[in-house]
Each structure stands twice: as C-alpha cells, then as structure tokens.
Design goal:
Oligomer: single chain
Strand content: 5-15%
CATH class: Alpha Beta
Number of helices: 8
CATH architecture: 3-Layer(aba) Sandwich
Structural class: alpha/beta
Distance between the termini: 15 Å
Radius of gyration: 20 Å
Bound molecules: 3-methylbut-3-enyl trihydrogen diphosphate, magnesium ion
C-alpha cells in the first residue's frame, strides 16, 4: 500500500479504476483469448472430449456479449492451432463440425448486433463447408462497425511470420526498406491493433505459438478456470486486473490511474 493511504481509500481507488475499465476508458481495446481446457472440462464430468468442445463453443456467445458490455472493441478467440492437427482424427473432425455449425448458427445474430467477423490463420486444407461458412460470414459482416470478432482458426504464430517473410521477399522489397511496419502489414492481423490483453484459461502458462509478433507488449493474464466455465464475471476480473497495471513499453511514465493522482 502507498504511504498515507488507508485500506479504505485504496479500496475506493481500486473501485474507481475498475469502473474506468468498464466504460472502455482504461480497459483494453483488444482482448485475445486462448480458449483452453475443453478436454479437461469434459474429463471432469466423465464425458468424451468432444462434449468439452461443444460446451466451449457455446461459451463464445456469452463471452462475446460480455466483451461488448465491457467496452472491448476487438475480441480475438483462438479455436484451433496449426499444432492441433496432431490430435486424433476423430477429435479434429468433431471440432471442425462444431465450428462449422456454430458459424452457421451464430452469424445472423452477430450481424444483427453489428459485429464484424474476421479470420486469422489459413483456410487452406479445411473442409469446404467450413471454409465457405467462414468466407460468407466475413463477407456478410464486412461493413459492420461494432465489435471486431476475429476467429483464430488453423492459426500459428510462426506460420504467420513465415508467410509474411515469403510475401515480403516475393514482393521484391529491398532489405533496407523493411521495417516493423512492413512486417506488421504482411501479417494476418494487418488491419487490427496489437492485443492489449491476452487471456489464457485452464492454468497453462504459455502462448503455444499464439500471436508471437503481436504479443510483444501485451499484458498476460492466466487463470485456472477451464474455458467452458469462463463466464462474464471471469472476463470482467481479467479486464479489471488489466486496468490496474502500469504499461510502460520500455519507458518510465506511469499510466496507472491508481498511481497518478498526485
Ligand atoms: C482447447 O481445449 C481447444 C483446442 C485446443 C482445440 P483443449 O482441447 O486443449 O483442452 P485440454 O487442454 O485438453 O483440457
Ligand atoms: C492452444 O491450446 C490452442 C488453442 C486453445 C486453440 P493447446 O491445448 O493446443 O496447447 P498446448 O498443447 O497445451 O500447448
Ligand atoms: Mg489444451
């Protein structure tokens, strides 16, 4: 605690900080979530892993609502990694089917709410129905100005960086002209800001090849809660935690509302 401040005052200040976070003033603009723990959620209930993926996909709707209510402008959700192809073929097919059905089912409502759907990763090699569903949803919602909801699917950070390097080389850009902007412009995320906050559920403390370039200055938040159990109150807790942090980007200026009242 800071000198000269009572516990009561600190509570009030912390509350003010959390209130600020809720109206988007001090909260993260872009939250990216590593939706992990579906398999363990199912195992805890004696269910097949696929039941965890069903429940995890259901959870996307309520978290999307919660994100809008918290003033989040960009929500990125990681549903399938380039390394997840190592899983048993039945599980992979099940995940594809569930995602395909969810996109068919949810797009109209997301469109009605003004959300703009995007995809990062590769659509190559995916089942044609899923690929078409994703492309249709992107096309339908492309002019919407509400939440930018990015589905990271068949996404890997290293693959994204490799693809960017290949594009830059084939465009013949001279080495001396390649700067950070050039690289960022060749990533899948070229149109969206870097994530302010990356949340990972299920207690793992790693990025597992997620947004490697874009996460350079992201705040990281790890929670033991399994993804299907991660509700609006958990998202709010993550956002409030974020709002209390002091992001310095290598500098020394304090931007924390808790510390900058003198
Ligand atoms: C996350 O849950 C979903 C995917 C990676 C597709 P998991 O399936 O990894 O669940 P756990 O980690 O085995 O519990
Ligand atoms: C990361 O989770 C990928 C997604 C949540 C989509 P994994 O379960 O695949 O990650 P590892 O294997 O535990 O690192
Ligand atoms: Mg996992």
């Amino acid at each position: 605690m800071e000198p000269g401040r009572s516990g009561h005052d600190m509570d009030a200040v912390a509350h003010a900080a959390s209130a600020l976070s809720v109206d988007g003033v001090n909260g993260p603009r872009h939250v990216a979530i590593i939706m992990d723990g579906n398999g363990r959620w199912a195992a805890q209930r004696g269910l097949p892993r696929i039941a965890g993926h069903e429940q995890g996909t259901e959870n996307i709707r309520r978290i999307t609502h919660a994100a809008v209510n918290l003033g989040i402008e960009y929500l990125t959700l990681w549903a399938f990694s380039t390394e997840n192809w190592r899983r048993p073929v039945d599980e992979i097919h099940g995940i594809m089917r569930i995602l395909s059905e969810a996109i068919q089912r949810e797009t109209t409502e997301l469109h009605r709410q003004g959300a703009q759907l995007r995809h990062i990763g590769s659509l190559e090699g995916l089942e044609p129905g899923l690929r078409a569903g994703v492309l249709d949803a992107i096309e339908l919602t492309r002019n919407n100005s509400g939440l930018v909801l990015t589905l990271a699917f068949n996404y890997g950070g290293r693959q994204e960086l490799l693809a960017a390097v290949r594009d830059i080389v084939s465009a013949g850009i001279p080495p001396g002209e390649i700067d950070e902007e050039t690289l960022a412009r060749h990533l899948f995320t070229r149109d969206i800001p870097d994530p302010d906050l990356i949340v990972r559920t299920s207690g793992e403390h790693r990025l597992s090849n997620f947004l490697l370039w874009q996460s350079a200055y992201a705040e990281l938040y790890f929670t033991p809660t399994l993804w299907p159990d991660f509700g609006p109150e958990h998202l709010r807790a993550a956002v409030e935690d974020y709002a209390r942090r002091d992001r310095r980007f290598g500098g020394i200026k304090s931007t924390s509302p808790v510390l900058s009242d003198s």
